[in-house]
Write a structure and sequence with these properties.
With 269 residues, the protein is α+β, with helices and mostly antiparallel strands. Helices cover 14% and strands 29% of the residues. The protein contains three helices and 16 strands. The strands form five sheets. It has a four-stranded antiparallel β-sheet, with no helix packed on it. A four-stranded mixed β-sheet has the order 11-8-7-14, with no helix packed on it. Strands 10-9-12-13 form a four-stranded antiparallel β-sheet, with helices on one face. Strand 3 and strand 4 form a beta hairpin.
C-alpha cells in the first residue's frame, strides 16, 4: 500500500498497483515493480551476481576514499553507486564463477581534474613511496592540488589510503605499510583533488618496484663486529699485546662541568 504525504498531487512512498514510489535526497521517484522471475538462478544471473559481489567486496574496503573519488557524480546517485556502476561495466571480468577484477582498468576516483601522466611507486620494508612529475599548468592542474594515495593488498583484500598526503607540486608522498604486508601483492593508485574540493582527477595505477633491504652482520673475529652462533656479539679482538705491568706516576682528576644528559624519544610523523 502506498502512502501519499503531500496530498493527491504530492509524492508517495510504497506500492500502488504496478508502480513503487520512494524518496531519495528530498525528491520523490516512481518505478515499475520488479517482475517475478521464474528461474532466478540461470547461469547469466549467477554470473552477474558474482560480479556484483566481487566488485562490492572490493569497493567497500575503500568506501571513504570512494566518497571523495566519485563526488562529481553524486547528482543522481551516490558516489559508491557511481563507482559500482563503472567498475561493473569496465573492470569486472570473467564468466561463470571465475569472476575477477582487472585492476589496471579500475578507477578509484574519476572526474574532470587533470591527472598526472608519469609516476612510480616504490615499496620498501615499511612504506610505499609515490613519485610523480609535476604537471601543474597543464589544463586545470594546479600546484595546490592535493595528492590522494591508495595501496590495495590483493592477498589480504584490504587497503590503506590517505586523501591528503601531499600537494601536486611536492612530487612525492608516502604511505606506511604494516609489517605483515611483506611479500603480498600490492597495487598502488595515485589521484588528485582540487584545493577547493570541487574537482577530482581520474586515478592512475602505478607500477610498483620492490626495494629489498637487508642488514649484513660480519662473522669474522677481525671485523668491526662479530657474532657467535648463540647470538652474542663482540667487538674485534685486540691486535696489540696487553701491557700487564703499568706504574702510574700521577693522576689528575678533571671534573665534567657540562650539563647532565637528558634522554629524548624521537618519533616519526
Amino acid at each position: 500500500m502506498g502512502i501519499i504525504n503531500q496530498g493527491i498531487l504530492g509524492g508517495f512512498s510504497g506500492k500502488v498497483g504496478p508502480i513503487v514510489g520512494f524518496r531519495w535526497k528530498s525528491n520523490y521517484y516512481i518505478r515499475a515493480r520488479a517482475a517475478k522471475v521464474s528461474n532466478p538462478r540461470t547461469p547469466k544471473q549467477q554470473e552477474q551476481r558474482g560480479k556484483f559481489a566481487t566488485v562490492f567486496s572490493f569497493l567497500k574496503t575503500i568506501k571513504p576514499f570512494i566518497r571523495i573519488g566519485y563526488k562529481e557524480f553524486t547528482q543522481d546517485k551516490s558516489a559508491f553507486n557511481a563507482a559500482m556502476s563503472y567498475t561493473l561495466k569496465r573492470a569486472a571480468t570473467g564468466s561463470g564463477k571465475d569472476i575477477t577484477i582487472d585492476f589496471n582498468r579500475v578507477l578509484v576516483s574519476m572526474g574532470t581534474l587533470m591527472p598526472v601522466f608519469e609516476g612510480t611507486a616504490t615499496q620498501e620494508r615499511d612504506k610505499m613511496g609515490f613519485n610523480w612529475q609535476n604537471n601543474s599548468g597543464m589544463g586545470n592542474a594546479e600546484d595546490t592540488d592535493i595528492a590522494m594515495l591508495l595501496v590495495y593488498n590483493k592477498d589480504k583484500e584490504t587497503a590503506l589510503y590517505n586523501t591528503e598526503a601531499a600537494l601536486r607540486s611536492d612530487c612525492h608522498g608516502e604511505l606506511p605499510l604494516p609489517d605483515d604486508w611483506q611479500g603480498d601483492e600490492l597495487i598502488a593508485y595515485l589521484s588528485f583533488c582540487s584545493a577547493d574540493g570541487d574537482n577530482v582527477a581520474n586515478s592512475v595505477r602505478l607500477s610498483v618496484t620492490t626495494v629489498q633491504t637487508s642488514s649484513h652482520v660480519p662473522q669474522s673475529e677481525d671485523s668491526a663486529l662479530w657474532t657467535l652462533s648463540d647470538g652474542i656479539s663482540f667487538y674485534p679482538k685486540l691486535k696489540q699485546p696487553v701491557v700487564d705491568d703499568i706504574t702510574i706516576q700521577s693522576f689528575t682528576n678533571h671534573p665534567f662541568a657540562g650539563k647532565s644528559f637528558q634522554s629524548r624519544l624521537y618519533g616519526t610523523g
